[in-house]
Amino acid sequence: MASEKIIDGKAFAAALRGRIATGVAAFKAQTGRAPGLAVVLVGEDPASAVYVRSKGKACREVGMESFEHRLPADTTQETLIELVEQLNDNPAVDGILVQLPLPDGLDDKKVIDMIDPDKDVDGFHPVNAGRLAIGANALTPCTPLGSLMLLKDRIGDLSGKEAVVIGRSNIVGKPMAQLLIQENATVTLAHSRTVDLPAVIRRADIVVAAVGRPNMVRGDWLKPGAVVIDVGINRIASDEPGKTRLVGDVAFDEAESVAGAITPVPGGVGPMTIAVLLRNTLVAASRREGLADPEGL
Ligand code: NAD
Fold it and tell me: How far is the CA of 273 from the centre of ligand 1 (A)?
């Protein structure tokens, strides 16, 4: 039997996708159309191609329309921006996602800046980062929002909890800290220059690790009972020769015996990301149609 300490992101994401499908059906009944998500892939990066395929499939499974745009690796910045502008103007498109990283020669930031913030379902546009910071109606980056959903599901009220987020990237660490502040947690944002990270983490009721270093956070760094969200996805050599396996940023076996609850890798935060992307697309579509945000998402 699975340990009760394990936070099952796969099951939570499946249930969320079910609620989204219900929301999509209600949206269709009200507007006569399906919410649409456009995903843009430039170049042939195999990992990105897999993500784009799974995003399209996940869209169709909840009843949304998926528009896939594949451009060659030698696409110019102008051509890519023209496509983004067309998608901004296309009323059937509620969400636009440009798969990152872009090939060399293309500027991620300049392209993201061109996306209509109200269609920016990745939540990477500066306007959405600003909205999140001031507590306005942001479209919020998917991985941190999914992590927050798992935390709230496990802990309930986060008010007054000591939370330590490790990693200060714009796509995970910083928005995660903003979300936790909004939930009234007391938040420390640790990073590569933090002095005595184990001592900082030992204070925490909630630890969110988003670093990209396999098994960095050790079991004896944790306060007993802490709830641990491991965002890291790291591929390392497995015990079987020639094979690899995925591990998080937290040394899982050690941490599991000390933590109150912990997300596994894989099967924790990972499955939440696409589910929240669908959620953001439905929210963006609802707002564009002047409807209230769907409930329970
Ligand atoms: P990033 O490389 O942009 O940022 C890493 C952060 O870790 C930096 O802010 C850096 O200051 C900090 N850091 C580096 N070394 C450190 C150290 N020794 N001590 C403390 N902090 C340190 O990474 P990112 O894009 O935020 O991603 C982080 C991890 O999360 C990666 O493993 C990535 O694959 C994973 N990720 C997972 C998902 C998902 O869907 N589950 C989504 C995005 C990212």
Answer: 15
Most ligand 1 atoms within 8 A of CB, residue of 172, 208, 265 to mutate: 172
Any domain includes 156: yes
Instruction: Give the pLDDT confidence score for residue 3 in this predicted structure.
Output: 81
Of 117, 152, 181, which residue sits at a domain end? Answer: 117
Q: How far apart are CA 216 and CA 251, in angstroms?
A: 7
> Is pLDDT at 1 greater than 70 in this prediction?
no
- Encode pLDDT of 184-221 as tens digits: 999 999 999 999 999 999 999 999 999 999 999 999 99
Say if ligand 1 is within 6 A of residue 150 CB.
Answer: no
H or E stretch including 189?
Answer: strand 186-190
DSSP state of 293: P
Range of the domain at 66: 31-117
**Catalytic residue set:** 55, 99, 122
**Model confidence pTM above 0.90:** yes
80 domain residue, yes or no: yes
Q: Which of 233, 235, 249 to mutate to test the pocket of ligand 1 (most atoms within 8 A of CB)?
A: 233
CATH classification at residue 73: 3.40.50.10860
Residue type, 248: G
CATH number at residue 265: 3.40.50.720
- Write down which residue in 74, 100, 117 finishes a domain: 117
- Per residue in 104-137, pLDDT (tens digit) is 999 999 999 999 999 999 999 999 999 999 999 9
In a domain, 249, yes or no: yes
Locate the ligand 1 atom nearest the alpha carbon of residue 168 and give its number: 9
Q: Which helix (H) or strand (E) holds 281?
A: helix 270-288
| Residues 95 and 149 reside in one and the same domain | no
Classify 261 as helix, strand or coil.
strand
Structural domain tally of the chain?
2
Q: Are 230 and 265 in contact (CB under 8 A)?
A: yes
